[in-house]
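As a point of orientation, let us examine one representative protein, giving the amino acid sequence and backbone structure tokens.
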Amino acid sequence: LAGGIILGVALWLRHDSQTTNILYLQLGDKQAPNTFYVGIYILIAVGAVMMFVGFLGCYGAIQESQCLLGTFFTCLVILFACEVAAGIWGFVNKDQIAKDVKQFYDQAFQQALMAEPEASNANTVVKTFHETLDCCGPDTALVSVTPLWRSDLCPKKSSHLKTFLEQENCHKKIDELFSGKLYLIGIAAIVVAVIMIFEMILSMVLCCGIRNSSVY
């Protein structure tokens, strides 16, 4: 059941409309950074393997098989080690994920302002960010006064002033998006880790109990 829940959360994060709209964008030959999906794929793998390993543990307990319970315990140790490694990787890279996406957005925004011919889809990329995140412009006030500003890049408002007063900058929205998603991943990982620890303890207690009872 825990594996199924983890798998469900991971699949929801993987197919969430906000992240998919942004992370599937392409600017010329450059693809949007998809480092975020590495953590999602790890969760999907852990959830799927947990479901299989859980079945193995249940069957081993029903059959009172020390071999199956020992295999169950070994698989849990491996999964736990992988999850700890993934957690450390995620903690180290949590700021880098948002930073890469912001750099991708800034590059597209700059090309859209300059109307560079090699970036014909820059407008589309920028508009997708603005519409998906309900934001307008990068993390700078310079854009609001530059003569290169193009009103068609942001969601329609009655005036530029109203646009900047009512809509947050996209850097802040990108930070909020990924910090929220990473927060959910962190909660899921902690829940899985706690469940795994109890599973390992109980499987060893059961295995020892079966071994002791077989003596008599």
Notes: The chain has one domain: 1-214. Residues 173 and 204 are 47 Å apart (CA to CA).
